[in-house]
Design goal:
heterodimer, A: 192 residues, eight-stranded antiparallel β-sheet, 5 helices, 8 strands, B: 20 residues, elongated
């Protein structure tokens, strides 16, 4: 059966409009000058057009980040929608960059754009991947660290979506604790 | 309702040629 032209051209709309950011570490410039908005998208098809066009995270240089945030939220603690929030953090061993990193990051993106946390998806602000020589990190950021029910639900679903085993635990850190930490250890607020 | 898509649905669109 032939579809009308208008229907063929219709794309699948996402619940939210998302913005992809890229950070490249240049010590000669201010932190914020190194952070660039790449593009925004709001349909399934446009997400893939972007994703298939950019370098996989595992091929980025050390010190670079990708961030995917809801449009209107900047990928930094200081944003009003982030500052009371925190992040579920996945840290990867060096050797996992080639085996797991791109899969985990893609599954993270699909969780966000597909609104896979149900009603709690409204708590999501975005996700960040940090490529670092000491070990890569992936995190999903939520807007309110005190909202324990939502945060732990998101953590449990996220862990399941990544296919992490029961023995592995992931921790949630409040941005306020990360920002004020005096050493490399940030307090973990929740664990799943 | 909320526009929710599961992983398999979203993955079906990867590498799909863009429509013009």
């Amino acid at each position: 059966q032939e579809l009308p032209l208008g229907e063929i051209l219709d794309k699948y709309p996402l619940q939210n409009r998302w913005a992809l950011w890229f950070f490249k570490n240049d010590k000669n410039r201010m932190w914020q000058a190194n952070l660039r908005l790449v593009t925004r998208f709001s349909t399934v098809e446009d997400f893939w057009a972007l994703y298939d066009h950019i370098k996989p995270a595992s091929k980025l240089s050390c010190g670079c980040d990708y961030s995917l945030f809801k449009d209107g939220i900047e990928p930094m603690w200081e944003d009003t929608q982030n500052k009371r929030g925190g992040r579920w953090l996945i840290t990867l061993a060096k050797q996992q960059r080639h085996s797991k990193l791109d899969c985990f990051w893609l599954d993270t993106l699909l969780c966000l754009i597909g609104e896979m946390f149900g009603d709690y998806s409204d708590e999501l602000c975005g996700a960040v991947i940090n490529i670092r020589s000491k070990g890569d990190k992936i995190a999903i950021w939520t807007r309110e660290a005190e909202n324990q029910e939502a945060v732990t639900h998101i953590g449990r679903v996220y862990k399941e979506r990544l296919g992490l085993s029961q023995e592995v635990t992931i921790g949630y850190q409040a941005h306020a604790d990360t920002a004020t930490k005096s050493n490399s250890l940030t307090k973990t607020k929740f664990v799943v | 309702g909320k526009k929710q898509y599961d992983r398999e649905f979203l993955l079906d669109f990867q590498f799909m040629p863009a429509c013009i």
